[in-house]
Fold each of these.
Amino acid sequence: MTPLVWPALAFGAALFAALMFRAALFAGFRRYAPGGDRAFVRALRLPSVLWCVVLGLAVAVEVADMPVRLTRQLSLVLEAAVILSVTITFAHVLSSLVAAAGERRALSGGVTGWAQTSVRLVVLVLGLLVLLSSLGIQITPILTALGVGGLAVALALQDTLQNLFAGMHLLADKPIRVGDYVKLADGVEGHVVDVGWRSTRLRMLQNTVIIVPNHKVAQSTITNYDLPESRMALLVRIGVAYGSDADHVERVLLEEANRAIGEVPGLLAEPKPLARLIPGFGESSLDFTLVCHVASFVDQFEVQHQLRKRVLRRFRDEGITIPFPSRIVYMGGPDMAPQTPRRSTDPG
C-alpha cells in the first residue's frame, strides 16, 4: 500500500488546488461577465470538474513509481478521461452557443431545444467513437451499421426531414420572422406565430391559426409586409367627375389627409401625403390616387375607413361629384347616320 500513498496524496493535492482555482475563476466570471457570457460559464460548470479530476490523475501518474504494466493501464484510463472531458465540454459549449443564437434570432423554444439536443447528441456520438478507437476497439463495423441505419431512417422520414431542413433554411435565411405579416403565393396570409422544426404557424386577421409545412413555405413566393420595415405606403384611389377642377380636388385631398394625421391611429406624418392624377383619365371619371404612409400592414384598414369618410364628407361640402360609370350609346344601323346619343347610366 505504501507505493500508492504518494500518488494518492498528489492526486488529492492537485484536485484540491484545481477546484479552488475553478471556484475563484467562476466567482470572477459571475461578478464581471455580461449576461451572454454567463450562459457560457454555466455550460462549463460540469466539464470543469472533469478537468480537475483529469489534472489530478495526470499528477498522480507522474508521481507514482509503479510497474510498467500498471502505469500503462493508468495512462489508458487518463486518456479516456481526457477524451470524455473534452467531449462533454464541446457538447455543453456548443449547446449553449445554439441556445444563445436562438435567443438572438427569437427562435421558438421547440426549435432551439431540438437544435441543442441534436448538437449535443452528435458531439457525444463522435466522442464515443474516438474513445472506442483509443481503447483498441474497431469502429469500422459500427460506422457501417450507423450508415446503413441512418440511410433507412432517412428514407422512412423523408417528408419529416424535408420539412426539418426547410425550417432550418427559413431560420438561417430569415425571409420571415416571428411577428411579421406575410402573404404566401397561394393566398395564405397572416402574422407569423412560430417557425417550428416541421411547420410554420400563421395567425390570420380572423384570429385563426393556419399551419403550413415548412417545405411549402420555403418553396413559395413570400411577400413580407414587415421587411425591410413595418411602414408601408397606402394608395387610396378616388374618382371625381370630369367637370371637376383637378387643382381643387388635389388641394382638398391633401387637406383632409393632413388633418387626419394625429387623429387617425396608424397614419404617419412622414413621408408627407401626396395626391396625384394617377391612373388618370378613366371611362367616366378623373381618377386620383391619395398616397399616405401607415405604421404597419394592419393599420391600413382603419386609415382607409377614416380617410374615405372624411373625403366623402368634404366632397359633399365642396360640391365635388363622384360620378356613376356611364357610356354613350348610338342607336342606328350601319347605313344610317348617328342619331342623337342617349346616355346610359349604370349605377352598378
Amino acid sequence: MSYADAILPEYDRETANTRKVLECVPEDKLDWRAHPTMNTIGWNANHLVEIANWCEGILKQDSWNVAPVGAPPYASPNLRTRAELLARFDAGVAAGRQAILEVKDEELSMPWSLLMGERVIFTLPRGDCIRKFLLNNTIHHRAILTVYLRLNDIATPAMYDAGS
C-alpha cells in the first residue's frame, strides 16, 4: 500500500471535519478569547487555515525558515471573514492532497526541518511531519476552537460518527 493510499482517508476526514468547524466561526466573535492569556477565536481559525497550507511545503521542500536571516519573518494570516477563511483553507487542502498523491514513498523518510533563523526547531522525516506537525496539530487546534464556539453558545458539528 502506498503512503497516499494509507494517509489520504485520514487526511480527507480530518480536513473535512476541520472545514465543518470553520463554517461555524462567527465573524462578529473573531476577537473573543476565553481568558486574557489565550488566543482568540479568529487566531485559532486562522491557525487552522495556515496549518492546511503547510502540507505541500513539507512534502516538496527540505525545510521552512519562519524567521530567515536578513528577510522578513513569516506572518500568520489574519483573515477576517468566513469566506476568506474557507477559501484559503480549501486551497491549502487541495494543494496538500495533490502533494500527497505525488510524493514518492521513498521521499517520506527524508528529513524536513522547521527553522527559526539559524536555529533548528525540529527535524523529522517528512512522513512524521504530516502526522505530527500537520494532522495532530490540526486536531488539537480544532478542539480548542470547538470549545471556544461552545462557550459562545454556537453549535458545533459532529466530528466522528459510526460511518467515519
Amino acid sequence: MRSSWIEIDLDALRKNTAFILRRMSPGTKLLAPLKGNAYGHGATHCAKVFEEMGASHFGVAIPEEGVELRRAGFKEPILIFGYTFDDDYELLFDYDLMPNVFTLSQAEELNTLAGQKGKKLTIHVSVDTGLNRLGFEWRDHPVQKIEQILSLPNLVVEGIFSMFATGDQYPDTAYCRMQFHRFTQLCDKLEVDGCHIPLRHICDSGATLLFPEMHLDMVRPGSSLYGTYCGDVTFPDIEVWPVMSVHSRLACIRRVAMGDFVGYNCTWAAQRPSVIGVVPCGFVDGTPRLASNHGAVLLHGKRCPIVGNVCMDQMMIDITSVQDPQIGDEVVLAGVQDGEVLTLGEVGEFGHTSDTEYICRQSRRLPLVYKENGKVTDRVSCLQE
C-alpha cells in the first residue's frame, strides 16, 4: 500500500458520460478526450468506459498518447488535437492516427508521404475562430486553402473543427456565440462550394451541456466527463459527479510550543501549543506550493489547515482539534470523509488554479486505485510496488 494514492470512481465516470449522452442532439457523435492520461484518471481504463458507453472517437494531445491507446487494443478513430511535427509522421501511419492539419504546406507533406506509402491518411482540419491558438486563421478567409486540401488525392478530410475560448466563463456567452457564427459561416461557404466535410465539431463541455443548437455532428466534452465542469459553478438541470479523489496517510505526529516555526523558510508560527501532522504528499505529487498556509485537508472528517510551506514530498497540517490521531490514519486531500467535503473546485482554488488543472497535475507517482460499486477493481502504479 503506497503512502498516498488517487481513487478513480468508474461509476461516476459512467454517470457523467450517460448524462452527457442524454443531453446530446440526435445523431450527434461523442468524441471523448483522453489527453493528459485522461486528465490524470488513466487513459486506458477511461477509454474502456467510453467505448462501452458508445463514444465514436477519442481525442489526444500528442501522437504518443494515441499510440498508447492503439497498443491497448482500441480501434476507435483517434484525433490529435495538437500540432504533429514531421518527426512523428510515421506514427500517424503506423498507428492510424488523425492529425489536426491547419496549413496547406503540412497537408501537402502528408499527402506526398501517404502517396509514397500507397495509403490514405484521414485528417481533421482546424480553424481558429477567436482562441488565437491553433488552426487556420478565420480572418485569412481560409476556404480556398481548405478546398485545396480536400482536393489532395491521398488525404481524407473527415472533420473540421474549432475551439471555444470562453469555456470557464459561462454563462457569459457572447464571445462563444460569435465564434460559433464564424465557424458555421465558414462551413456553410464550403458546402455552397460543393465541399462536404462529414464531421463539424466545436462544442466543449459547457457548450455541449448548454447549447444543443451548437452540437453539429460531434461534441468534445472534456472536463464534464471527469466531473470538473466549471469548478463549483452550478447550473439548473446540470449535475456532474467528481471521478477523482486524492488520499494519503498520517506519517508523523509532533507537538510544538507556542511560537515554534513549522516548515521551510519559517512561514508559519504556532499561535498556541499545537499538534502537527506530517503527510507524505508534496508538490511533486500534485499539491501546489501555493496551498502553503492557505489550503486544508481532511482528517477524521475535520478540516485541518496546511501549515508551513508545502515540501517536495511532504506537507504539514495542524491537527490540534483532532481527537486521538494515529499514525496511518487516512488523510483526504480532495474528496469526502465522514460527511465533510473538499471539492475539486475548492482544492484547485487552494493553489489559485482550476479544478481541471488540479486533477491533471496529480503525479503518476501516486497509484490509481479504480473502484466500481464501492469495491476496488484494479490498481495501477508507475512505480514498482
